[in-house]
Request: fold
Amino acid sequence: MNKFIGTGVALVTPFDINGNVDYVAFSRLLAHVVDGGVDYVLVMGTTGETPCLSAAERRQVIDFAKKEIAGRVPIMVGMSGNNTSDLLESIRNFDFSGIDGLLTASPFYNKPVQNGLYAHFAHVAEVSPVPVILYNIPGRTGVNISPETICRLACDFDNIVAVKEASGSVDQIMRVVENKPERFTVISGDDGLTLPLIAAGVKGVISVIANAFPRDWSSMVKAALDGDFDSARAIHYKYLRTVRMMFAEGNPAGVKAYLAQMGIMQNVLRLPLVNVSDDLYAKIADDIERLKKVSGF
Reply:
């Protein structure tokens, strides 16, 4: 059974004013999203500022999340790289106890062709002790995993169970849905496209906005998956402005600005990422007030 259907949340990593991982705030965030009804969490994804954490910090953050969540929801962990042999070694040496899935992005910068992508993910599937979720995000990696390569991998490896699709191409995503094996799940990687993609056959989202608004976003996804598109549309349009502002100056700068103003964590990022502009921060404050009036969160 695929555990990654519905609303997953790509967790941010809170930092204190000195730039250290803030575990008090992280505990508060984990309680906020799990109590808010998300179906699973992703630790050490892009939104977690993973490239800006040391290997020791990444291990500590994962261990802390496992302890705090204590089996209440499944945990997906992000592990990617553009050196296949190094990534395989990292997977072999990783303690996957308490971990339910591995999210792995296409290799970045060196831009492999489709046969290279296939071989890379095939090797990952061969060594991973947990189900593998492909991550297609060409805007960050510089290379697109084609629908044909995704479906080939899905057919050839039983433990490649899903793809997080953040290509931004609805046509491409529909081609995957159309041609994938039945057991394989397509997950939205874009909050703003989640509702229309569910209508096209996608089975949920790995969400950024659910860090801040887990209850409403989970309700929207559940309603859409249940075919109640009137209810889902109402929530989608209530938050569409929020989604746009959250990504206007990059991720996770936008969601951290929301979370800071909601009292969940400090508004601190690690270089080369920086805070949103003062102008956007003020607009986010206004948006939070708007949402309080219509949602009462």
Remarks:
- The mean pLDDT is 96.
- The longest helix spans residues 229-246.
